[in-house]
Amino acid sequence: MKRRMLVMAFVFLFAGCAFFMQPQEGLCADPIIVGVPTSLYTPFGSYGLKAVNMAVEEINAKGGVHVGGQKRPMKVVVADTRCGEPGTPVHDALMAYEKMITEQKPAAIVIGAFRSEVLIAAMDLVAKYKVPHLGTIAQTPGFQAQFKKDPVKYKYLFRVTTDALVDATYIAHTLDMLKKDFGLNSILHIYQDTAWAKFFAGFLQKHCKETGWTEVGYEAYAAGASDFSPALSKAKEGKAQVIGMIWDVPLGAGVFAKQYVAMKVPALLVGFIPPMGSPIAPKSVGPEVEYSMTVEFPVGATLALAKLPKTGEFLDKFKKKYGELPEPPAVNSSAYDSVFVLASAIERAGSLDPDKLVEALEKTDYKGVSGRIKFNEDHIMVFGEKSADETGVCVVFQWQKGKDGTLKRVPVYPEFLAEGKIMLPPWMKK
Predict the structure, then answer these.
(1) Which of 70, 84, 237, 247 could, after both became Cys, cross-link 39 (CB 3.0–4.6 A)?
(2) Kind of pairing between the strands at 293-296 and 366-368
């Protein structure tokens, strides 16, 4: 009797496993570990992680990723690098990276370092452990410069987002519009003294000099700065018509926004100041955000675009799941897209072998929320300004009042995504 019961138990166990394996076979297989070492202090890291988790849930709901003859679920593991906190040593962030790699043994990494200095330092670490790395935050063009030094060694690293020169190009062309359409020609630059912001501001300064702008100032501030009044005073005294502001540390950006409003600086804000580009800016900063312009990189980070339905679909799902839109106007869609790029590469490679996975990633051709994702010879995503069907794209928007008096973000550049024209504040009109 006991033997019969044991046999029946094994039969039921086998049948039950077979039953569950058919519709949800991935849930019984070993998970594919996806590592996320990033700065959770920053909205870029925390909201990016939410986007990654959402993408993983969507993939797992369909059974997971097909690899090695079976479907396997994805599992996210996280390490807080703290590299977005002013004063955190690069070494500390690298220790978090290495601890994750050696202990969690991820098949791949997404998002990666927030601070560009950490990304450059982590490239050798990633190459050492041969872990495919799909970075979606750090913006320094130093990535491709380092990659060129030894493409074989650094082949495991990819960038699935913009870099500072792409973002700066969008702002430069917006400045061209301001000069051509309104005759504006004087600018004061303020930038964060970090690698990506130096590239961004340096590109803008060079462009402005070449196109006839008068430079009122070129002011660098440490990442931990909390007083921007000297530069704002200089903008007022020098009668700057535009302030080109490049900043990403949450505290400093928030302080700048409040000081700009309190000092009533009569200059148009153009650049990247997350608190003033956030969907909640009219409440968190105030109605004075009106007329300010921000580059969102890439598209779909926080703003649904009428001409790119995938941006609205992503943001609707995000809001339904988390009860709010992402806060920072950058890289959320990149984080989401990176998971699907990775899943597709794994399936095409048919393996988690890092070298086979790299070969598959190099052949990526995926139409995501942020546009068409393809990598060039330096493993960076290709961006343009003409079509999301051909390249990744960004958008510049301006806060404007609608007919009902409510402030909303209106896409103004590039032309194929524009839903309105740039408006000058009444105090700037001649």
Answers:
(1) 84
(2) unpaired
